[in-house]
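Let us practice reading a record.
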Amino acid sequence: MKEKKAQTAGLARLQKWCGVRDRTEREVREKMREVLAKMATPPSTSRAEAWSEDWMTALREDHYVDDARCAESYTRVHHEHKSWGPLKIKAGLASRGVGGKEADRAIQAIPEDQWQASANRLLARREDELEANQNRVIRWLMQRGFPQRMVWTALDHVTKTARREAGGDS
C-alpha cells in the first residue's frame, strides 16, 4: 500500500513537472532518477526500473512526453524569440536528446525563406559594423546557427539594400 502511494506520488510529481513545458524523453528519465533518489524509502533497483517504465508509459499515453512536439516547440521558440539559426537549434535539440528525423522535421517545418529573413534581419541590425568588422559580423551570424550559404545571401541582401538607399538619397 505504501509503495503504491509512493509510486502514484512520483508519477504525479512528474506529471506536474512535465505540465510546465514540453519535455523530451531523456529529460524525463533524468528527472525520474532524481524523483526516485529523493523518495523517503527508495525502491530497489529492479522495482525502480519497473516504476520508471510504468511512469514513462503513463506519461506518453497522457501526452505529457512527446519528443516530436518538444522539438517543434523548441524550434519555433528559439527561431522566433532568440533568432537562432537551424544549425544552432539542431545542436540544442541534440543536447536535449532529440536528434535525427524528429529534429530535421521540426527544422523543416519553418520555411527556408523565414530562416533567410531572420538572417537578413540580424545582419541588418549590425550593418554599421560591417564595413569595419565584416569578418567578425559574419562569424557572429554563423555562431547564431546560420549556414554559410544563408550568411552570404544575407550579406548580399544587406549590401544591395544599403547601396539602393545610398543611391536614392543622391
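A brief commentary: The CA atoms of residues 88 and 143 lie 8 Å apart.
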